[in-house]
Amino acid sequence: MTYSLVALTEDHLAEMSVIEQSCHHSPMSSATLASCFGHLYRVEGVMTDGKLLGFSIVQQVIDEVTLMDICVAPSAQGLGLGKRLLTSLVAQAKALNAVVIMLEVRQSNLSAISLYKTAGFVETSRRKGYYPTDIGYEDAILMDLSV
């Protein structure tokens, strides 16, 4: 299969919302996703045969980039698409003179943590008991990558 990275528009919101709902314990609403198409944001998707398989959303303010979301449909996980999205957003951040990319991730999201560590992100702090779970709360791990 051939995968392509493309800039997404609001026309992709329905597909993004389906992927978001299927991947996250506390997914962003469609309205929140729609708000990520402002001038400070970059939204990129990975597609094959006209079908959206995953996306990333970053916000850049001057030289700081925040990875707001990276999400790959469950049926396409394990194909390296998250890595492709992450590699692309890091390259874009460098090209736009960013000095740091910041993110937060649930402590239970081991595959995402592994992806970020492999890309060079380091844990900078934690928000104790930040994310609700079915049985309580879990920490948010804050990570940075100097670019």
From TrEMBL:
Reactions mediated catalytically: N-terminal L-alanyl-[ribosomal protein bS18] + acetyl-CoA = N-terminal N(alpha)-acetyl-L-alanyl-[ribosomal protein bS18] + CoA + H(+)
Keyword Ribosomal protein: yes
GO cellular component terms, semicolon-separated: ribosome
Domain N-acetyltransferase per the UniProt entry, residue ranges: 3-147
Enzyme Commission numbers on file: 2.3.1.266
Binding locations of acetyl-CoA: N109
Keyword terms of this UniProt record: Acyltransferase, Cytoplasm, Ribonucleoprotein, Ribosomal protein, Transferase
Active site residues per record: E104 (proton acceptor), Y116 (proton donor)
Compartment(s): Cytoplasm
Gene3D superfamilies linked to this entry: 3.40.630.30
Root EC class: transferase
Alphabetical list of PANTHER family matching this protein: ACETYLTRANSFERASE, PEPTIDYL-LYSINE N-ACETYLTRANSFERASE YIAC
Protein name: [Ribosomal protein bS18]-alanine N-acetyltransferase
UniProt lineage: Bacteria, Pseudomonadati, Pseudomonadota, Gammaproteobacteria, Alteromonadales
Gene name for this UniProt entry: rimI
